[in-house]
Amino acid sequence: MMKNNVQLITYADRITGEGINELTKLINGPLKNVFGGVHLLPFYNPIDGSDAGFDPIDHSAVDERIGTWQDINALGKEYDLMADLIVNHVSAQSFQFSDVLKLGEESTYWDLFLTKDDVFPMGMSDAEQEAIYRPRPGSCFTPITCGNGKTYDFWTTFTDNQIDINVKSDAGVEYLNNVLTKFAENNVNIIRLDAAGYAIKEAGTNCFMLDKTFDYLDKLSAQANDLGMETIAEIHSHYQTQVEVAKRVNMVYDFALPPLILHSLFTNDSDALVKWLNISPRNCLTVLDTHDGIGIIDAGPMGDKAGLLDANQIDNLVETIHTNSDNQSRQATGAAASNVDLYQVNCTYYNALGASDFDYLVARAIQFFAPGVPQVYYGGLFASENDMALLASSNVGRDINRPYLNAEVITQSLEKPVVKGLLKLITIRNTHPAFAGEFSVHGAVGTCNLKWQLDDEAIELSVNFTQRHVEIIEYTLNDKTVTQLSDFLKNG
Question: Considering the entire predicted model, what is its pTM?
Answer without folding.
Answer: 0.94
